[in-house]
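A note from the maintainers: we've had questions about how concatenated examples are separated. There is no special marker in the raw files; a new sequence line simply starts the next protein. For clarity in this README we add a label.
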Amino acid sequence: MNNKIVHHLSHTDLDGYSCQLVMKYTPYRLLNYNANYGAEVKQTLELILQNIINDNKSATILITDLNLTSDESRWLNNEITKLNENKKDITLLLLDHHGTGEDSAQKYDWYFLDTSRSATKITYDYVKENFEFNEPFWMEKFVNIVNAVDLWKMEEKDNFEYGKVCMRLVGETRELNKIMFADVDNNYKISLLLEATKYIDEENAPIVLDEKIHMLKKEFFKKDKNDTLDNLVTEYIVKLLGEAKDEKTIYYKGYRGYLSYGVGNTSIIGNGFLLTYPEYDFIVDVSYRGTISLRANNKVSVSQISKEWTGGGGHPNAAGGRIIGFKEQFRYDLVKKQIQKIINEKESVAGELEFKKES
């Protein structure tokens, strides 16, 4: 495994991100992914396989804190086998503690299951035994904290109480969208957990961390000057949107638009984007349920776009609607395919979009 890239898929809770924090102290090149259960797991694994194929290098897929169904395990095992038969070099390792994975664990030697430990502790113990590991002094304490709260060991009072705050630190960290900004969101959460390790030995440690959460979040987003968390996050997200312009630009009837997914807060973030990047005529944010929110800045009537796309409407600079039959996705490229299909269908409709002259 030493010379391979590790594609590390983990859960979206404290235990899942803590597994990735443990792996941060190995010497391997890590590409982190996070998914919740259901269709998100399969879509993310498909993305990992595609990235490995495109990269055309030896790789390890590491899955932690996620149990695979029998069908998912069979599918993944078959995909890896086929790739290796075609002279790829891919290894697979799953470290988990959910009893629902027992059937798969009995069938596949790459599936390691232990219901007595959290996934973080399993990963920590496995890494110490099998990988090169530059373990920081706080690691074992932090692992025991995660283990206590994830397995609900209330008798370990100090660890349990600190773990509860860490759990909320991750669970209520929703400033970034993990589909639009997967790498940055992952780094954000792991950075916060890393900061949390600094207060483990403080007197009244859970209270200390609880009171510092707001400050820790602001420090991540702060660049030059202090501001409210909302303003710092907005500026940060607008910058991220701008850095991804090449991938996320769409065109409709000659107008340049920006497609985001699940970002929300379109009135503030959308308008902030249009002011920062005036070369765009409109921005549209699609929610996970298929509602769309459009904003413009006196260059095109988004109420007409909404009407043509969804039968919705609104004002020339602010409109919305709902895409009938929208299928929730956990990858941006699959969302863009759905929207591009709508654009292709509607572009042939007669009529031009209305201008709204700049005042």
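[label: protein 2]
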Amino acid sequence: MQKNIVNFIGCDAGYDEADVVIFGAPFDSTTSFRPGTRFAGAAIRGDSYGLEIYSPYQDKELTEGRVYDLGDLELAIGSSERVLGQIEECAAGIFADGKLPFMIGGEHLVTLGSVRAAVKKYPDMHILHFDAHTDLREDYLGVELSHACVIRRCWELVGDGRIHQFGIRSGEKYEFDWAKSGHTDFHPFSLEGLGEVLAELGDVPVYFTVDLDVMDPSVFPGTGTPEPGGVDFLTAMRAVTEVCEKVNLIGCDVNELCPPCDPTGASTAAACKIIREMLIAVVNRDRKP
């Protein structure tokens, strides 16, 4: 008899030996439209068993590396600040043990907890951000800890020119104007220019946050705030792989899958494959100091 443990397929290394640690952040209390992202981690782990551990795109296998899946955190649903503290504590412990935290959200606010831990260890870090939305509001309906404000809160930690945004196609006018004024490195509507930014980043520590609604809802309808005009699946998959291969990645997250919004399961399947390609790229690269 074996323990009944559901993890992301191929991610069954022990914690001590692992280079990458997956953990889930099942939180969606500030979701502004369609809730349900708290169920993403469980859905992704379950559906990952429909995948192979081999990537024909990279000609590599996930089990060539060592990944530990911690499972979903037991979060204090209803208290955003308490939840962010729990996420920060978890990510900080992973950083302290010399491992790379890979968080599965949850709504996008969960990124702030992981970034708070990352910036304490890597004060010169940059953030690479794929998304349909700016997430740069000062507040949303008077609430500063909202998924609509998460990148603005991250900017308060890292400052001007250290957040690189791609795929953005929705937000208020003042958010676009604020980003374009130099507060962020702003690349709206597509992932064009990504290669040049990766080359410029060099060995700088990079935290990578992927809001899956960067993809068009025609291929990824299972998200809380679908926004037409996004990239196709292959473009997104190749881009996240390139990031994980080329930058000095110190942490990352994938968020905003809402399984109840897509009962076909197609969006969950897409999320699983994005995560598999990211993990394979991370564990098979030459780790930078």
